[in-house]
Amino acid sequence: MSRPQEPQRSFFHFGNPFRSPKGSHLPPGLLSLLDKFEKTLSERLQKLVPKDKSDILSLSWMKLAMGSLSEIHRDIKDLITELEIPVTDWDEKWIDVYLDISVKLLDITIAFTSELTRLNQGHLLLQCVLHKLESNSPDQFLRACSSLHSWREQIRSKNPRVETCRPVLDNLVESLDLPKVRNSAKGKVLMHAMYGAKVATTYICSVFAAAFSSSTDNLLDLNSTVPATLPWAQVFYNVQTTVSTEIKNIFSRGEFTVLRELLAVDNWANKLYPLLQDGFSPAQEESFKHSVSELRKTAEELSQGLDNLSKVVDDFFKIVLSGRDALLCNLRAGCASPNSVLGRNTDEQIVR
Q: Which residue ranges are recorded for the region named Disordered (predicted)?
C-alpha cells in the first residue's frame, strides 16, 4: 500500500494559516460553513470523554472513536461538496496534501486491521480451551492448560505491522502545518477544516497505536500544536488529557495491555491456569467452575467487541480509499466516473 520511500519532508512548509483571525477575509456564507464544520467537530470530540473513565480503551469506546473519525471524514467530503470547488481549481499543494495524508492513513489502518485479526485468532484457542474443559478428563484438562498457555503467549507477542506505526504518526504530525492559502477564500475554509480533521485523526490513531503496541511510545501529545484560538481546541485538550492520562495510568500499574476486554479475559485465564496445571481439590471445584464460566463470558465479549471494532476500522479504510480514488479519477482526463477506480459506486455504498 505504501508508495516508494522518499526523503522525509514537510508538505506544509508554506506558512501557518492561523496567524490571522479566520474570519478576517471570509464572506459570511463561507464563514457559516466553517463554523458549522467546527461546531460539529467539537461535538464529535466531546463524545469521546466518557462519564466513567473506566470506559476508556474498552472496545466499545474504541469503536466510538474510530466511528467518530469516519464521521469527521464524511463531514470533510460534505464540506468540499458545499464549497463547490471543482477539482480542476484545486491548488497543487492541496492535492499533494490530500494524497500524502490519505496514503499514510491507509497504511496505518492496515496495521490496525492486522492486529485486530491477530487478536481475534486467539479466540479459536480460547474456544479450544473451553471445549476441553467440558470434559472431566484430567488428560483433557492438561491439553486445555497447554492451549491456554499458547493463548497467553500469543496476546503478549508483538505485531511487526503495529511496530511500524510510529514513523507514520511522526509524518502525520509533521503535516499539521497547513499551506498558506492566497487568493482563495474557499481554499482557506477547506484548509482550516482539514486541519481540524487531521488533528483528530492523528491523535486517535496514536491512541490505537499505543493500545495495540502496549506502549505509550506511540501516544502523541498535540496540545502544544493546536492553537487555543480554535473553537474546538478546548474540547480537544480535554479529550487528549483525559484519554492519555488514563492510558498512562493503566500501564503504570504494570498491565500488559490497555484493552479492557482483553484484560478481563486474561485475569480469568490467570486464575484458571494454575488450577489446570497443578490440579484442584474438591474444595476448589466451585472456584474452578466459576472461573470457567467467567472465562467463557469474557471471551465472548472480547470476540464480539473485536468483530464490531474491525467493522468500523474497515469502514474508515473504505472512506479514505474512496475519497482518494475519487480525486485521482477526477484528475485523469477522460475518466468516465469518479468511482470507476474502485469498480463500484462507493458514494452509494460507503459515504451516504
A: 1-20
